[in-house]
Amino acid sequence: MNTSAWTSPPSLTARLPRRRLLQAGGLIAFWAIIESFAATHHWPVPGSLVGLGLLWLLLDRGILPSSWVESGADGLLEHLMLFFVPAMLALVDHPEFLSLLGVKLLLAVLFGTVIVMCGTAMIVEIGFRIGTARHARAR
Amino acid sequence: MPALAKAVFWAIATLLIYFGARRLNVGRPCWWTSPLLVTWVACGVLIVALRTTYHDYLIGTHWLVLLLGPATIAFAVPIHRHRQLIRRHWVVLTVGVVVGSTLAVVSSWLLAGAFNLTPEMRASLLPHSITTPLAMATSSRIGGVPELTAVFTALTGLFGAAVGETLLSRLPFRSSFARGALFGMGAHGAGVAKARELGQEEGVVASLIMILAGLLNVIVAAVVAAN
Known about the structure:
Chain A is an all-alpha fold.
């Protein structure tokens, strides 16, 4: 799996692997069908989320062999960042962010990120140590 | 230029810049050659230089944004691939995801309050720690602007991936789980790439934490929005 490798260099395949494109196309078709259902039936959760659950169920039950979707899914996730760059460019319509507001938002993002990183790592480290200690005692 | 030619031009320009940026990042891998940052800035400069409106740009590239949907579905594959690790360590993964998401939401809420941001800005900021497609889905359900959320989320990833190692070198976290969780929860996609450099288990834990935290947030937002 190669989920948006932003800093590590991704393997640059010069030729387009046909299998990967075909599988990605299949996933896109699967998404389009589910999304049209979601739109007509006014689902409260995004159609893509239902699709994720459904695909996982198909894989988990062994109905769909994972080799049928794996390469396409990895391909889509590898280029994830390309898909949201156009959304991020909405900023060109908002010159007001080049002001104190932008600085405030940037600071909120920076402080928040440090808090989340430290707090999460701490709780997981504690949980992991408790878990391994219990494991050792059980043995 | 006719509308169709314009749309095709922006689609091709974006793709060329993106693949060029990837090549650049292979030659010189560091945070400021990240394809995300380079593509974003280069496309932004081009739009402003050619006096194009965002509306016109999006006509040519909206189909790329739509691909976030199938990409979200694709997250089922890594979840299935690492099912054994999930089954064995579901408690610690759940604790990490729940605590991490709570910290992310509470800290953004308080910081937005401290900086006197509008409710719309605050809602756009809340999901900034989760993976972008799910952050945008969450944002639209809680009264935020998904495009702004995409910006905040990308900045979170870039910053988190850049400072994560410094934090780890100063903090006493030894387990690969804590190190992976720090990157997966704090810096989503960019963090996962960084965690992979630390080790295989770190990378897997980071990607699972990222996906599960994203799912938790969208589902909670959908429930909140429905009530």
